[in-house]
Structure formats: C-alpha cells, structure tokens
Amino acid sequence: MRLSAPDRAPGVRRLVACAVLALGGLFASTAPTAVAASTPPTALAAPVPSATAAPDIPLANVKAHLSQFGSIAAANGGNRAHGRPGYKASLDYVKAKLDAAGFTTTVQQFTASSATGYNLIADWPGGDPNAVLMAGAHLDGVTSGPGINDNGSGSAAVLESALAVSRAQLQPTKHLRFAWWGAEELGLLGSKHYVNNLPAAERAKVSGYLNFDMIGSPNPGYFVYDDDPAIEKTFKDYFTGLGVPTEIETEGDGRSDHAAFKNVGIPVGGLFTGASRTKTSAQAQKWGGTAGQAFDRCYHSSCDGTANINDTALDRNSDAIAHAVWTLGTEPAIPPGDVYENTTDVAIPDNAAAATSTITVSGRTGNAPATLKVGVDITHTWRGDLVVDLIAPDGTAYRLKNSSANDSADNVVATYTVNASAETANGTWTLRVQDVAAQDTGRINGWKLTF
Ligand code: DTR
Ligand code: CA
Ligand code: ZN
Ligand code: ZN
C-alpha cells in the first residue's frame, strides 16, 4: 500500500499497514506454509535410475497355471465362477504361489448375488508407498465353462509376472501391487468393491492400474487400451520392438476391471486379444489368423478350456506385462526436472479480489514431490501489499508469501519450495495473488512449477 508521497508517514503507514496486515492475518490461510527460498529454479540433479530390462516370462510357466485352472474347474463342476467352489480354489492356488514367493497377500471379501466374493491383493514389499503401480486381472470365469482365456490367461500372466518380480528380487522405485478380482462377470463387482472401499488418500497413491482380461485368444488381435498415454506408449513400444502392430482397444471402456480405477481418475491401461467380435481381413493380414472368425469363438462358452489359447499371443502379452511392470515400476515416481509454465500476464487489482493463474499438469504418476519448486514472476510496486498462495488441484492452499508493511521494495521474482507430497501431481494448480492494501498495482508476468 502506498500513501501519496507527501502524506507518507512511516508511522501512519506502519499503523495502517499493520491493520491491513492484521486483517490479512485474520484471513490468512492456515494451510501448511511454504519454505521460502530465493534460489533460482534448478533442475533436480537426482540421478534417474536406469530402467532395468524385464526378464522373459516363460510361456511354460504361464501355461502350467492355466493347466491348474483347468484342473480346478474340472474338479469343481466345470467352472471357476463367482460363488462356486472353483473360484475359491483358484484363489487359494494363486495365493499359495504368492505367499511362497514373499508377497504380502490380503483376501478381501464382499457379497455379490447373495454369495461371498473374494479379491486377492498381493503387495511386493518396498518401493515408494506414495506411488503404487497396480496390475490386475479378474480370476473368475462364467458358469458355463472353465474360463481359461477369459480370464485364466490374464490371471496366469499377472501371477507369473509377479513371481518373476520375486525371482529377480526386484527393488522398484514404485510400490508394486498385484490383484486378482472376483465377480467381474457379474458386472466388475470385485474391482468396484476394492476401489469403492479404498480411502481417497490411498487412491491418490495409485499411480496407475494395468488390466489384463483375455490376452490369449485363439484367433488373436493385439489391442492396447487407449487410456493413459504413458501406459499406452509403454505397451506400444514393447510390441513395436517385437515388430508386432497393435490397434487401440476402442470398446474397452467400462468393459473390464480398469473401469472402476478410471472412474476415480487413476491412470489406466491394458492389453486385450479380442472376444466375440470378428477379425477383419485387414487384421488377418497384419496378425495372421482367420478373417471372418471371432477372436475367441469360445467366449463365455464351455469350450473355453486349455486348448482355447494361442500360445504366441499369450507369450507376447505375458512378456509385455513384465515389460510394463519393470518399466513403469522402476522409473522415478516423479521424473525430476519437469517444468510446467504459464507466461500469460494477469493484472492484479488494487486492494481487491485475488488474481489467479493456472497450470494444468497431466501424464505424471503419483504425488507431487516434497520439494516442488514454484517460480513466481510478479511486477508490482510496494510488494508488501501482496499475499501469494499456491493452490493444489484438490484446493489445498500453500502460503508462499505474506503481506508485509515493511516491504516497500518492488516486484516478486522468487522461487519457493513447497512440500506438496500429499498432493496428486496431475490436475490444475493455481497461483493466487491478492493485493491487500490500497494503491500500488501490478501484474503476474508468469509462473512455473518444477517437479
Ligand atoms: N467383458 C470382458 C470381455 C471384454 C469384452 N470387451 C473387452 C474390452 C477390454 C477388456 C475386456 C473385454 C469379460 O467378459 O470378462
Ligand atoms: Ca516369454
Ligand atoms: Zn467374460
Ligand atoms: Zn474377462
């Protein structure tokens, strides 16, 4: 605030300013305060751990799990459906393998269609608890058959990828969590139960969910979910490396267990080899197989048994799962040094409502860092008039600068360090600048976030 020069009397200003300051203090945010630092933004020098290459997933191991699922179905009325003994027997088989491999397993019960359902969750100890990478598959089948492609294939491949993590004693940067869902065939009920019962703070830690439902179809296509770009790219890059063309899965929305995760804003992706839709001639040209025939003629049928699998497709997709787990699981939870900037000028009204400027962050995984750099460039005479806050995507305010009766210097060009580790990285961040004292005006020239 500036009185006209002849009227300026430090005491008066200080008194009035103090009053303004006091008022300002009454309304000041009580949110966590930033640690002000005037150092220029510097790219974080933290070394980026190189992504270790995933091991080959032995097809024979995956098929051995399928053989077990087939035997379980045969011993339990011919199916592995929700509410039937074959489902729980399938879960017990998978759980035993994971317990023996050092995973921390949890069986989550729920009720669906008056029957008890079960999800199996397996956590690999270690990794950043604030950046959880999940991979999952539904373990149940339909009542009409053993459900080997749908979805023993996804369940077996995810299991073998988890066992490969154990064999490698992988120490990923992210925390790895694997899941086998119940009652998917009744309407994605197991995964919905899991997500609906996951506290918001825990959901925010899930950096991505990878879904695998039908990945060994006998007349296979190679479809990649067109959801999170980073996940989609990870899968596409793998198949490009194999020289196998892919198509985006356009009908996947809402069709499998990734839906519950996507609905709460968690990045998702996955792979699919097709169900009852018919392979076109063009697709047969690029992938082989039979045009005019369904990708899986035994979809939801009694013939969906251990012979209803294309080994090449199952092998490629199993290896793609391992590639994604290793790649996404060992990359930095937040790649250091990424800068997001808004350089649009915004006028700051004198002694009035706050001026705001936004930056939308996307494509990142997990939470923002504990050392989020906020670079601010404001032109304003008598900067003591200004209160500056960073507002996180969920609305949490972080005070960067308080108003000050004694700070008659001009302009705010500074970098603040904010502990934003409780905030999800993706979303719209806002710089809020309020002039709380009459006279003196200015503008936001621009600002930036450095992760
Ligand atoms: N609903 C799945 C099969 C299925 C159909 N379309 C897609 C797309 C993406 C994943 C799975 C599916 C089931 O019957 O389990
Ligand atoms: Ca393999
Ligand atoms: Zn199905
Ligand atoms: Zn399925």
UniProtKB/TrEMBL annotation:
Recorded coiled-coil stretches: none
**Entry keyword Protease:** yes
Compartments annotated for it: namely: Secreted
Needed cofactors: Zn(2+)
Q: Which Pfam families match?
A: P_proprotein, Peptidase_M28
BP term (GO), one: proteolysis
Please provide, alphabetically and separated by semicolons, the GO molecular function terms listed in this UniProt record: aminopeptidase activity; metal ion binding; metalloexopeptidase activity; serine-type endopeptidase activity
Record's superkingdom?
Bacteria
Question: Listed GO cellular component terms?
Answer: extracellular region
| Residue ranges constituting the P/Homo B domain according to the UniProt record | 330-451
The stretch of residues making up the signal peptide is: 1-36
What keywords tag this UniProt record? Calcium, Disulfide bond, Hydrolase, Metal-binding, Protease, Secreted, Signal, Zinc
Name the InterPro entries for this protein.
Answer: Galactose-bd-like_sf, M28_fam, M28_SGAP-like, P_dom, Peptidase_M28
Would you identify the family this protein belongs to, as annotated? Belongs to the peptidase M28 family. M28A subfamily.
Q: How does it assemble?
A: Monomer.
Question: What is this protein's record name?
Answer: M28 family peptidase
Tell me which species this is from. Streptomyces mesophilus
